[in-house]
Write a structure and sequence with these properties.
This protein is α+β, with helices and mostly antiparallel strands.
């Protein structure tokens, strides 16, 4: 897809050059090409649905739910999925990336013997990128949910059910969630500063047996970007799910009143959990009616969601909730939607998709 990206850039530059030539003789088309960047948004998928824990009514059901959730996260194999995502990044070579559900699963044995694996999605993905000769630095991080430690039963790794005499568990597990902005360090003339992050005041909470009240603590991360004399703010977020409609819409309004306040140029990316056709919540309309422009409004395209184990043989994407929005002197064109198909690992079952979400890649042109 690297050649395709170059073709997109040439086409956008040629069209703009022709327009400019009509009123400014001698203006080079190269000037427009030199003000083009590629941005990407990708939800990595934390690896499992948390619904079993949400639906637990007793402490015992919660322990069983944690075992199911952790087992699914191991099965969906982020180290393998990261290779596919890294291949897509290598093909598209985005200059700026907004990632959601950049999870860390920390499984801890409470004595010598058990060996439950832990997964830091950010470290794993960066290693995969580096192995392809790519250099992306972490520019901003939104630290969101931190859940656990919770008792973990995972006999395959020596984490057995609690002792009938002491009630002690062998292992515990924690989950933390982040949204991350990555910047391509090899892009000439691209500079960033002003890393910021924050959490929304409005949050959905759940009362779960055992840990008690839990929240995903949704938030946002942003940086100020300068490229060849043009400036804009790059913002990444992950809003609450559609089941908490009022909370999600309130978070969208906080986004507009907070990191997006003012009249400056903006590129906003993320998983907004709001279908663009208006079938779920009003968040998409709230954002686009504020002056934000959908940079990738391709009819019939969907970005969410594959099943929770990523094993569906054909794509189940049905709604478009992963978006790139712009404001001000920023135009987008010709988006790519990355489906992340992958073959199961040999000799055993495994995930067929790199994430439950498609990624979105968009070329943006910074105008005068």
């Amino acid at each position: 897809m690297g050649g395709r990206r170059a073709t997109r850039r040439w086409r956008a530059a040629a069209v703009l050059g022709a327009v400019l030539a009509a009123w400014s003789v001698g203006t080079p088309a190269e000037a427009s090409r030199n003000r083009e960047l590629t941005v990407m948004t990708q939800n990595l998928y934390l690896g499992s649905s948390l619904q079993p824990a949400i639906e637990a009514d007793t402490a015992g059901e919660f322990v069983a739910a944690v075992a199911t959730i952790y087992g699914t996260a191991v099965f969906t194999n982020f180290p393998a999925r990261a290779q596919v995502i890294a291949d897509e990044i290598a093909a598209q070579k985005p200059d700026l990336i907004g990632l959601q559900e950049v999870s860390t699963w920390t499984a801890t044995p409470l004595h010598v013997g058990p060996t439950p694996p832990s997964f830091d999605f950010l470290v794993i993905l960066q290693e995969a990128l580096a192995a392809r000769g790519l250099s992306y630095e972490v520019a901003a991080v939104s630290e969101n949910a931190s859940i656990g430690p919770a008792p973990l039963v995972a006999p395959d790794f020596g984490c057995n059910p609690p002792s009938p005499t002491t009630g002690a568990f062998d292992c515990v597990v924690s989950l933390s969630d982040r949204d991350v902005i990555l910047v391509n360090t090899t892009t000439p003339a691209l500079h960033w500063s002003g890393s910021q992050s924050g959490r929304y005041e409005e949050q959905a909470t759940l009362d779960i047996p055992g840990p008690g009240e839990e929240s995903f603590d949704r938030g946002w991360a942003s940086i100020e970007v300068s490229y060849r004399g043009r400036d804009f703010k790059f913002v990444n977020t992950h809003l609450e799910v559609e089941d908490f409609e009022a909370v999600q819409e309130a978070q969208a309004r906080e986004l507009l009143a907070g990191p997006l306040a003012g009249t400056g140029n903006v590129v906003l990316v993320g998983d907004f959990n709001s279908a663009t056709n208006g079938s779920t919540t009003d968040t998409y309309d709230i954002l686009t009616s504020s002056g934000l422009v959908d940079a990738a409004p391709v009819p019939g395209v969907a970005t969410c969601c594959q099943n929770g184990t990523l094993t569906n043989p054909t794509s189940q994407l049905s709604t478009r909730i992963d978006l790139i929005l712009t404001r001000g002197a920023v135009n987008g064109s010709d988006p790519d939607y990355l489906l992340g198909a992958m073959a199961p690992p040999p000799q055993r079952p495994g995930p067929r998709w790199a994430s439950d979400h498609a990624g979105v890649v968009e070329d943006i042109l910074l105008l005068v």
